[in-house]
Amino acid sequence: MVKLKEIKDFLESLVPLSAQDTWDNSGLQVGWEEAEVKTVGFALTVSRSVIEEAVSKGVDLIITHHPLTISGVKSFVPDVYPSLLYLELIKRGISVYSLHTNLDVSPYGPTRFIADEIGLKGEPIVERPPYGVLGLLREPLTQKELLEKLVSFLPTDVFRTVNYKPTEKVEKVAVCSGSGASFIDLVYKRVQVYITGDVKYHDAMKALDLGLTIFDMGHFGTERLFFVSLKKVLLEAFPSLDYLILNEKSPFEVVRDVE
């Protein structure tokens, strides 16, 4: 029998809560530490559909990247977000544990996963906290080849580019999963391509004028696979548990024709 506290303590030994940003809310969101866990589900974000699937598949613990809330909850009523999620989780007896910015700066996080998949070795974009990876590809690729490689494993069918030059050879690359536009000023002189998500209009214009190529693979696209490295180490530590990847998709839909 595995208790929630054992999993919580293991995760916090691997990815300490002390590594998160001061504004963040990583850690146990909902749950009783003495509760028994048999099935673990992974989801980027808790939503109604994620909870419904967790209930139908007997999930005891949902491990997420995004906390249920960062700003806090002032009241628990069923028609207000996110309190409606808390109420449903408590009603169903499902625990939630989140690893957010502490995972972002960890070797087990989504940025490092993307870097490894494209053969990028390097150092953090910033040292404290150590966000992102900036360095050299194992072998140079054209921008088109790099983009094709990203599309081959990231769960996104929609992406945006700035200064895209398909045939240009690329060696110097930076990656920051989620929302990384704030680092444009730190990377544009040091890399040819910056891979991130959530780039806004004025940030894109800045990159355009600075000559920096950006591959905006989306917030969902760059973080959905946050669980890959965590799942491997959890399987080794708790082999008796069942592990499920809960179904999710980006909340955005691309509409090409209005009928």
UniProtKB/TrEMBL annotation:
InterPro entries: DUF34/NIF3 (IPR002678), DUF34/NIF3_sf (IPR036069). This is GTP cyclohydrolase 1 type 2 homolog. Homohexamer. Belongs to the GTP cyclohydrolase I type 2/NIF3 family. It comes from the Bacteria. Pfam families: DUF34_NIF3. A divalent metal cation binds at residues 65-66, 104, 219, 223. GO terms for molecular function: metal ion binding. GO terms for cellular component: cytoplasm. Keywords: Metal-binding.
